[in-house]
């Protein structure tokens, strides 16, 4: 496979920069919500998780497509089914503030993913990863083969490093 065209944008925010990516998913908003919140469905594109999925709760997520499949703690900071999920992912000395916003009607759903407060110096390394994971989400929903990480990194690094800051 060839390198997919990157779509992410580095966007100034009130307190720094956000990395914003979007995808269109087939199916309803409720189905997309299930893909990002139900353990067996998140396992298909990101990783399985365990715990009680509720606002304020911390669950453990095993990143199923990373070397050594590490576990990370993820605190659910906002949960408004089936439209908005915001989480704080914590591993070692890094915290990532992530949100998923879903909208649409009928048989199409628009997903807006945001990594809040991203350090622009790191976007070249992080952006390709989110492109990869969101394309995995689309593949898991459409039943197409999962993409290969090798098609994303380092091929997309330069695109993200050149994002305006």
Automatic annotation (TrEMBL):
Pfam families: AHSA1. SUPFAM superfamilies: Bet v1-like. It comes from the Bacteria. InterPro entries: ASHA1/2-like_C, START-like_dom_sf. Residues 29-139 form the Activator of Hsp90 ATPase homologue 1/2-like C-terminal domain. Belongs to the AHA1 family. This is SRPBCC family protein. It comes from Georgenia faecalis.
């Amino acid at each position: 496979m060839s390198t997919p065209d990157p779509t992410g944008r580095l966007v100034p925010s009130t307190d720094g920069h956000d990395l914003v990516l979007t995808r269109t998913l087939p199916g309803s908003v409720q189905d997309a919500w299930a893909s990002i919140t139900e353990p067996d469905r998140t396992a298909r594109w990101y990783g399985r998780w365990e715990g009680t999925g509720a606002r304020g709760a911390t669950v453990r997520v095993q990143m199923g497509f990373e070397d050594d499949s590490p576990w990370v703690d993820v605190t659910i900071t906002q949960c408004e089914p089936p439209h908005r999920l915001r989480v704080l992912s914590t591993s070692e000395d890094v915290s990532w503030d992530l949100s998923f916003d879903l909208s649409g009607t009928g048989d199409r759903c628009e997903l807006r993913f945001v990594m809040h407060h991203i350090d622009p110096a790191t976007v070249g390394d992080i952006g390709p990863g989110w492109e990869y994971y969101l394309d995995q989400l689309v593949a898991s929903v459409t039943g197409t083969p999962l993409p290969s990480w090798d098609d994303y990194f380092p091929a997309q690094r330069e695109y993200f490093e050149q994002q305006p800051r």
